[in-house]
Amino acid sequence: MPNKFKKIFCKEVWCVNKGTFGYIIKFWKKYKLCYIVFMVIIFIMAFFSSRFYREEKIFTNFFGNIIKVRL
Question: Can you tell which superkingdom this protein's organism belongs to (predicted)?
Answer without folding.
Answer: Bacteria
